[in-house]
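Progress against Task 2.4 (sequence-to-structure conversion) is shown through the following example record, which the project officer requested during the mid-term review.
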Amino acid sequence: MNKHSSLSKGSLIERATEIYDFSAALQGRAAPAVEVPVGEPLPPVVEIARPVAVEAGYRAPDWRGPVQSIDRIVLAENGWLLPDGPVTAISEEFRLLKRDLLAQLGDDPRGNRVLVCSAHSGEGKSFCAINLALSLAAEKDRELLLVDADFGKPGIPEALGLTSGPGLMDAIADPSIAIEDCVIRTDIPSFAVLPAGQRSNNDTEYLASARTETLLRRLTEGRPDRIILFDSPPLLAASAGAVLASHAAIALLVVRADQTSESALRDAAGMLKAAGQVQLLLNGVTFSASGRRFGSYYGEGSDDA
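Structure tokens generated for the chain above:
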């Protein structure tokens, strides 16, 4: 799969969709067909419980967790976006991505919830989730909550230089825990992080419970400016990712250029049928035939416009 080198325009979403030609399969709730060998049982369908209605007039509270500073050195070392940093090629790519995303949010009853996922580990889902979160947090009228939902191998707080604590799974399992108290506020006022919480052998069942949807609604009810971005476990490694998709208005399926196989992509897309919509996000592109060099325009000092 080396067709990405011939693409010359469009966002990473548009280019990924063009490469993999999944336009029909990824529209609405449709998903690519996955062949199952004769005699092999189908995986069980997880039933999503009906959530408890949030009371009328309710407005999601402000975060009440501790304030911590994001380690800018760690961000720079990992090639992530720097708050108030210089314009770079990667920051411009994520600007295009978030513009596509923001234009589509708001029409789904699941609100402003976005799932970032991939078929396997090592395809860049956490890299994309963190950079997209930082880019969205730069919006002047938005508030971003990045949720570490990779319950088997959590690491978002640590990756940002934050100290983790109780998180999403704790609040789901224990009704006495207020989820807003688990949120880590950062020194970026519009950017917060919700840790994964205590590891559980029943994470899929907890996520499918009515309490999960109720908690997620309480995080955003009456706050249309608040976006929740989930960093999911790999879809083909843990069933929790498929259940998380049922709570998301948009699922971004990260595709690693020249690495993600088409069969893995089809299997992963088939697990996202419960999401409001599914879009492919191309990661690892190193060449643009058009000569696109985002970021260089701001640093060359040329008189050309």
